[in-house]
Design a protein that fits this description.
The complex is a heterodimer of chains A (247) and B (319). Chain A is an alpha/beta fold and 247 residues long. In chain A, helix 3 crosses helix 5. Chain B has one domain. In chain B, strands 1-2 form a two-stranded antiparallel sheet. Chain B starts with a helix and ends in a 14-residue tail after the last helix. The chains are: A alpha/beta (247), B mainly alpha (319). Chains A and B meet through helix 2, helix 3, helix 4, helix 6 and helix 7 of A and helix 8 and helix 9 of B.
């Protein structure tokens, strides 16, 4: 069976800077892959190449064995790829519930059918379920912009799951989330992985979060993969310690 | 926005239209004309509000679309084409041009986009003025007949208000549908919207095209109202005036265009004693309004209505 996601010899250069320099890896179905690396190592550029935000200078991205290199983010999303962003990206003037409905509506029927169909595109129940899963039910009618940072982070993650994606790329999901919420957040991600069968790729600086959530970790430094293996192996890898942990 | 509040905004708009219809029965012909003009301007402002207020795409081309609608009706009516068909033709031509105008918006934003749309207004004005074989040039087209049975001032007022009511319902329906949500997403965060599957390209073009089509409808109503069209009403100044209507009423507010158009129609009448200086006062009032209430008059009123005691921050999520 072909991997859900595969990067083959991805390169992305900005002038003379090689932000991504020949990265290849594959993500198997239901896997939770962690991507770590020091600041400026090329993690976000790699994500942007995988997600169609920027075109790679060379190399290919395959989704279920199909070449999707250069596809627009909206097209990738319709093929089952979802993401969260490093910085908060909710729609502040929409309510929590409307944010969630928006996150799924483009996957329901054709555009004309959506115009003449139900205002919630038939996703009201799914939005309620997602709010329950992410403990957002009591905030349903509030504008997303009025929520606390942690609540918006939860909403941001919940939105990524509204369309029932096969693959979710999470960019620093633990950033700015307080310790109380973090454990619960990790459990919710695990539940989504187990119950919904979603495959994850997670960029994260919080080592405890990555090591306890991911089944496999790759470490990137200067645009290259320097380690790939089980979380414990990567944590003990001398090259990783030198490049990332700094001791 | 809850369904109840959405229904409330439609009821408010339809109530205002009904009130205008009733008011017209007791007014002198000039008052009836002003109410008809309000309806015509409101339709154009609703279109611009959709493009600018909801989808966040600035446009200084709305006057061009009103002009296209007006000239389409003025040119086709004498050839025996029914008014309804001329109205649809004006809307369709404007829709097609709106799609074309939307393409630059896929590349440029903000004041760069404003300049692109401004160019269309200028181009349309030059066509209206110079293509005399079609538009009558600076002399324009006169004796534009009003469609039966709406030939009287009051009758035509009913037609204008009826079209405004239909437009109000159609736009309300659109905004409460997933399309409306996608337009807001386009305005607030197109990158995030695209990552959720929203086809930013398609919705940007639709926002321009639907807004432009409503400009065409407005123009189609305008021509038989004044019974004479010439290029000058469709110049840049009118685009700016429509922009003011949207901003003063409340950009991105459903009721904003109704209020903004009312101010634009009535203020020159109330300040008539100031002659041309009324524009100075109008500008000063707009500046003060935007400082005090950037969300416009409707936003100001809504803020006043929902003012409650402080201290209700959103509760922390309980994991």
């Amino acid at each position: 069976m072909s991997p859900v996601l595969e990067a083959r010899e991805l390169h992305r250069h900005f002038g003379g800077v090689k932000a991504v320099n020949g990265i290849s890896f594959a993500v198997a179905e239901r896997e939770i892959l962690g991507v770590i690396g020091p600041n400026g190592s090329g993690k976000s550029t790699l994500f942007n190449c995988l997600l169609g935000q920027i075109a790679p200078s060379s190399g290919r991205v395959l989704l279920d064995g199909v070449d999707v290199t250069g596809l627009r983010p909206s097209e990738l999303n319709r093929r089952g790829v979802s993401r969260t962003f490093q910085l908060l990206q909710v729609f502040p003037q929409l309510s929590v519930r409307e944010n969630l409905i928006l996150a799924g509506q483009e996957h329901v029927g054709g555009r004309i059918r959506r115009l003449f169909g139900r205002p919630d595109a038939g996703l009201g129940g799914a939005a309620d379920h997602m709010m329950e899963l992410f403990r957002l039910t009591h905030l349903s009618a509030l504008l997303a912009g009025s929520l606390s940072y942690g609540q918006q982070k939860l909403l941001d993650a919940a939105m990524a799951f509204m369309a029932g994606p096969r693959l979710v790329l999470l960019d620093e999901p633990a950033g700015g989330v307080n310790l109380t919420l973090l454990g619960a957040f990790r459990e919710r991600l695990r539940a989504m992985n187990a119950e919904a069968g979603a495959t994850f790729v997670v960029i994260e600086h919080n080592m405890d979060f990555v090591m306890s959530l991911c089944s496999r970790v790759i470490c990137i430094a200067e645009g290259r993969i320097i380690a790939d293996g089980l979380p414990g192996e990567v944590r003990e890898n001398p090259e990783v310690i030198e490049a990332y942990l700094g001791h | 926005m809850t369904a109840v509040r959405q229904a409330g905004t439609l009821a408010g708009a339809l109530g205002a239209i009904l009130a205008a219809g009733l008011l017209a029965q007791g007014l002198a012909p000039y008052g009836v004309y002003l109410l008809s003009l309000w309806a015509v301007y409101t339709v154009a402002a609703i279109g611009l509000n959709l493009t600018l207020g909801y989808a966040g795409q600035i446009s200084l081309a709305q006057a061009a679309f009103v002009g296209i609608g007006a000239y389409t009706t003025a040119i086709l009516l004498p050839h025996g084409v029914p008014f309804g068909a001329t109205l649809l033709a004006g809307a369709a031509i404007s829709f097609a041009l709106g799609v074309l105008l939307g393409f630059p918006a896929l590349r440029v934003q903000g004041h760069y986009l404003a300049f692109v749309t401004l160019a269309l207004t200028t181009l349309a004005f030059l066509v209206f003025r110079n293509e005399s074989w079609l538009t009558g040039g600076v002399g324009g087209i006169s004796h534009i007949a009003r469609p039966a049975p709406f030939t009287s001032g009051r009758g035509y007022n009913l037609l204008c208000l009826g079209v405004l009511a239909l437009v109000s319902f159609a736009v309300w329906w659109l905004l409460r549908s997933p399309w409306g949500r996608a337009f807001v997403a386009l305005r607030e965060n197109p990158v995030r919207a695209a990552s959720l599957g929203v086809d930013v390209r398609a919705y940007t073009l639709l926002a321009f095209a639907i807004g432009a089509a409503l400009g065409g409808v407005s123009g189609a109503l305008y021509a038989p109202l004044v019974q004479y069209v010439e290029p000058s009403p469709f110049a840049l100044a009118f685009s700016l005036s429509l922009l003011m209507m949207v901003v003063v009423g409340g950009s991105g507010s459903f009721l904003g265009p109704y209020v903004g158009a009312l101010v634009a129609v009535l203020l020159p009448e109330w300040l008539r004693f100031l002659h041309d200086y009324y524009l100075v006062l109008y500008a000063a009032l707009v500046i003060l309004l935007l400082i005090a209430a950037p969300e416009g008059l409707v936003g100001l009123a809504a803020k006043g209505l929902r003012r409650r005691p402080q201290g209700h921050p959103a509760a922390e999520a309980k994991p």
